[in-house]
Write a structure and sequence with these properties.
This protein is an alpha/beta fold. Helices cover 30% and strands 22% of the residues.
């Protein structure tokens, strides 16, 4: 068996997680809502200037909070375990899953944004009583390096929000609030 070493090739490594996590913090909507009530696996929130309430979860807490709504006969799919950010509209049975992707150098990351069909299919089976809205928050790099993938996401009506856009947070909140 051959060991492959990526060190120094910019293929993954410590910066992948560090850069991604700092980008997730930058794009996190937490500065734009108030917490009404805190639960063990989520929190009831209201976005600033709006009355509608949502449940906010992150990562594995989505499945913990939604325990009573899960179809337990469905095997868990890879990549569908820990969404970066999630807003649940319990009244209208909508789950907004936000996946944040940051990239600044060439690599295989374009393949990561080719997966929404599987993820939508999987989440819809796991949460059969909810409508799943899968959203990407991408760094500017994707606009110019993953043009075919962006075209595909637009074709499939997968919402894309650009994290470096000055109105990013307002835009994504307006999308969630006004979703029909």
């Amino acid at each position: 068996m051959t060991t492959i070493i990526n060190k120094g090739t910019k293929a993954g490594g410590l910066n992948t997680n560090a850069n991604g996590l700092s980008y997730e913090k930058l794009t996190d909507l937490c500065s734009n809502f108030i917490i009404i009530e805190t639960y063990k696996f989520g929190e009831r929130i209201k976005f600033n200037n709006y009355e509608k309430e949502f449940i906010r979860t992150k990562k594995a807490n989505l499945f913990k909070y939604m325990e009573n709504y899960i179809n337990k006969n469905i095997k868990q799919g890879h990549g569908c375990k820990q969404p970066d950010e999630c807003y649940i509209d319990e009244e209208n049975k909508n789950i907004f899953i936000i996946e944040t992707k940051f990239q600044q150098v060439t690599g295989s990351v374009c393949e990561k944004i080719q997966t929404p069909d599987f993820k939508l299919w999987q989440y819809k089976r796991v949460f059969p009583n909810f409508n799943i809205i899968y959203i990407y928050c991408l760094s500017e790099w994707f606009k110019f390096k993953c043009e075919a993938e962006i075209e595909y996401l637009i074709y499939k009506n997968i919402p894309i929000f650009w994290g470096n856009n000055k109105t990013f947070k307002e835009d994504i909140i307006n999308f969630i609030i006004n979703y029909k």
